[in-house]
Amino acid sequence: MDRTVHAALPPSRAVYLRTYGCQMNELDSETIAGLFEQDGWALTDLEREADFVVFNTCAVRQHAEDRVWGALFALKERAAREPGFGVAVCGCMAQARAAEIARRCPWVRVVCGTRSFDRLPALVAEAEREGRTLIDVATDREPPHGSLPRRRGGRLKGFVAAMRGCGAYCAYCIVPYVRGGEVSRPPGEVVAEVKRLARDGCRELMLLGQNVNRYSSERVSFAGLLRRVGAVEGILRVRFMTSHPRDFPEELIDAMAETPRVCPHLHLPLQSGSDRILSLMNRGYTIAHYRILVERLRERVPGIAVTTDLIAGFPGETEEDFRDTLQALEEIRFDDAFVFKYSDREGTRAARMGPKVPPEEIRRRHAAILRLQGTINAEKHASAAGTEVEVLVEGVSRRNPNRLFGRTAENRRVVFAGGRGLTERLVRVIITDTTPITLIGDVRG
User: Fold this and answer.
1) What is the C-alpha separation between 315 and 258, in angstroms, rounded?
2) Considering only Cβ atoms within 10 Å of each terminal Cβ, which end of the chain, N or C, has fewer?
3) From CA 431, how far away is CA 416, in angstroms rounded?
């Protein structure tokens, strides 16, 4: 996904910011935008009107990097003909490929990593003064924290980083190498930030961490933090991600079940339905362990929606391993799944593994998983017809200006007729029709 920070364009110097990747990157971009604004820059949603372009990048998969390379080379001619124009690259790809970016794209003024993005406006000023490319990918700094200025993309929903970094070292994953080790924020600091967001109009909160279950600070576990955040007045809904099945204690299930504002929705990456592949991935659990965990969650949190991530074509994956994944989908019946084609990430253990699955076979398996999950999605949504759901209204539908859209606590998208005055409110909606990705209904009279 990518996000653009939107703002009117005043006559001062303007910066255009594009974000690739995960919710943590979106949160980082809110801070980057706030820092530029504090430094006197204007924010624009029109790249052609920007004096400086910033790409906040992702390196989790090759496709994410390819998109950034394409965007960078598209600016080569403009950088050559406009002396005052500049480009900066930050985030995970910058951390992993700083030297390559500087070598292949000499028109890039600044390259900064995941623990230096709070220095970005200062680095831009320094690069412009000195007329050279600056690189800052230091890993010995504490991650930037919540006291920095932020320019939020919307008022209704907010992100808060409970922790940053990861120590899981899954065989396919670049995150520990580009984000560094786990660093948890003090619970009081997290709760204070949540209270500030609530005063600013935030009603739905997402607690973030690369492996948020591993949060631990001042003898407070993630379950304890979740209870504290769920007690903040003004916040109507609390979500969290991403969770690792290996690190999901019973006390966290209890916290979800016993904290009313915590949404009955969990994103729990499975990655493969084959124990052999899970072991090669260094995931630290079996498919039986995963099934028991989901059963326990569904028992303690009735109606919980469980979504997942899956990888097609991990090195050494056989047809039998692939069939095990399809069987897992049939048995667990996820509410949705994000399915990715495996791609080597330089520096990870999987990049050195073999045999590699041929690209055409990866595409076949990827498509088959998507088809099966699409069928499950359609069946689950069809069963919602005639039910009544509570929706937090986010705004006007992009496809139909006469309709509003929002999400249920289970994170299902709902489209319905209604006036703009319902925006940012909780409403009851009767579901009258469904598609595989959307529920359609009418506000209860």
Assistant:
1) 41
2) C
3) 9
Q: Tokens 């703002």, residue?
A: 7
pLDDT beyond 60 at 11: no
- Whether residue 97 contacts residue 64, with contact meaning beta carbons closer than 8 Å, is answered with no
**Which of the four CATH numbers 2.30.42.60, 1.25.40.10, 3.40.50.12160, 3.40.630.30 does domain 2-136 have?**
3.40.50.12160
Q: Is the distance from CB of 214 to CB of 225 less than 8 angstroms?
A: no
256 φ/ψ angles, rounded to the nearest 5 degrees: -65, -40
Report pLDDT digits (tens) over 25-59.
999 999 999 999 999 999 999 999 999 999 999 99
Q: How many CA atoms lie within 13 A of 60 on its CB side?
A: 15
Q: What is the mean pLDDT of residues 381-398?
A: 95
In the chain, list all ranges with CATH 3.40.50.12160. 2-136
Q: How far apart are CA 345 and CA 352, in angstroms?
A: 10
- What CATH number does the domain located at 388-443 have? 2.40.50.140
Q: Is domain 154-263 classified as CATH 3.40.640.10?
A: no
Q: How far is CA 331 from the centre of its chain?
A: 26
Give dist(CA 238, CA 230) in Å, integer: 6
Q: Tell me, what amino acid is at 152?
A: R
Question: Of 3.40.50.720, 3.40.50.620, 3.40.50.300, 3.30.750.200, which CATH number belongs to 268-383?
Answer: 3.30.750.200
pLDDT value of residue 186: 96
**Residue pair 90/112 in contact by the 8 Å Cβ criterion:** yes
Cis peptide before 121 (omega within 30 of 0): no
